Design the sequence.
């Protein structure tokens, strides 16, 4: 009975499903050709020190211009690239391009001296990932200290012992590791202490609700305290307003990134809106939640 039912379900005409499958198929095909066709590029978004607005680094963000559809958001194509394994060659291209850019920026005033690159779990699980990183650093002349890899909490959770070993090998080379979107996953605090990471990135969803939700502000404050007590740097993502920046600075957050400081832009257009820390005046703090 269940079988018959399943068969009926499969045979049922569902145009919306067919369309979704078809679109996915076409997008995968296009994604497969995209690198050859030079449809990828990287944008860079400034990362600043909150205390004085000094430029510290930049996050490399992948951009894809589809030949007919135009720009497609990474939120749409990265999951597809992960599912199909295409993230491995694409991710390699991202690393090469970002490291080459970081090498060119070294020693140039007003340019980021560190570049952060997002890496997917699937990439990190390649047995030769560390060798690939070594090779790319060598070929591009990018100092290991100028590269930060952004990984997600889910990676650390899936195979904590494996992650500790892998991130340890990267850290021992001087490559920095950041946990991206921190607070949205389920990091085990006991593992966090043992993870060879240098930075926690507070997810944008917390920053955007700082002023409207006291609970969110409490979580953000807790992440900052947690990072500091573990001796980690803490960066807030998605900072859009002076009020958010002031709040984060006051709570002791080290670094920030967001539209307030600069939107992601091509390397050649890289510029930073400098927002110096305002002089602290007693009793005149902006009050958020
Ligand atoms: P993410 O790593 O958390 O990157 C931050 C995202 O927030 C970026 O979106 C950035 O453009 C956006 N953003 C930055 N500041 C602000 C702000 O002030 N307000 C708002 N509303 N948004 C802001 P984007 O570029 O669309 O990338 C989305 C996600 O795609 C990234 O999230 C990352 O997880 C993934 N991704 C991007 N490039 C790569 C890549 O090269 N490799 C991999 N594996 N994933 C990537
Ligand atoms: Mg990121
Ligand atoms: Mg992030
Ligand atoms: Mg994010």
Sequence:
């Amino acid at each position: 009975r269940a079988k018959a039912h399943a068969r009926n379900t499969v045979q049922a005409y569902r145009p919306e499903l067919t369309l979704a499958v078809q679109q996915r198929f076409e997008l995968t095909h296009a994604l497969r050709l995209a690198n050859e066709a030079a449809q990828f590029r990287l944008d860079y978004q400034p990362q600043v020190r909150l205390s004085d607005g000094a430029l510290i680094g930049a996050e490399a963000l992948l951009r894809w211009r589809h030949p007919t559809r135009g720009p497609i958001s990474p939120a749409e194509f990265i999951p597809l690239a992960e599912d199909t394994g295409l993230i491995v060659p694409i991710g390699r291209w991202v690393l090469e391009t970002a490291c080459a850019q970081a090498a060119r920026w070294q020693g140039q005033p007003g340019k980021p001296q560190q570049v952060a690159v997002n890496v997917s779990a699937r990439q990190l699980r390649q047995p030769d990932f560390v060798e690939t990183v070594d090779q790319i650093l060598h070929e591009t002349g990018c100092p290991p200290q100028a590269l930060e890899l952004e990984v997600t909490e889910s990676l650390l959770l899936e195979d904590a012992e494996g992650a500790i070993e892998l991130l340890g090998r990267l850290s021992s080379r001087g490559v920095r590791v950041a946990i991206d979107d921190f607070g949205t996953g389920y990091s085990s605090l006991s593992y966090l202490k043992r993870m060879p990471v240098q930075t926690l990135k507070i997810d944008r969803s917390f920053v955007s609700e700082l002023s409207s939700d006291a609970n969110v502000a409490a979580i953000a404050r807790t992440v900052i305290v947690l990072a500091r007590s573990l001796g980690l740097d803490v960066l807030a993502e998605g900072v859009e307003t002076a009020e958010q920046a002031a709040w984060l600075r006051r709570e002791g957050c080290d670094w920030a990134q967001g539209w307030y400081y600069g939107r992601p832009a091509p390397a050649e257009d890289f510029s930073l809106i400098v927002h110096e820390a305002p002089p602290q005046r007693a009793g005149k703090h902006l009050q958020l939640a």
Notes: The first strand starts at residue 40 and ends at 49. Strands lie at 40-49, 55-66, 70-72, 115-118, 147-152, 176-182, 199-202, 233-236, 255-257, 265-266. Residues 15-34 form the longest helix (20 residues). The chain has a mean pLDDT of 89.
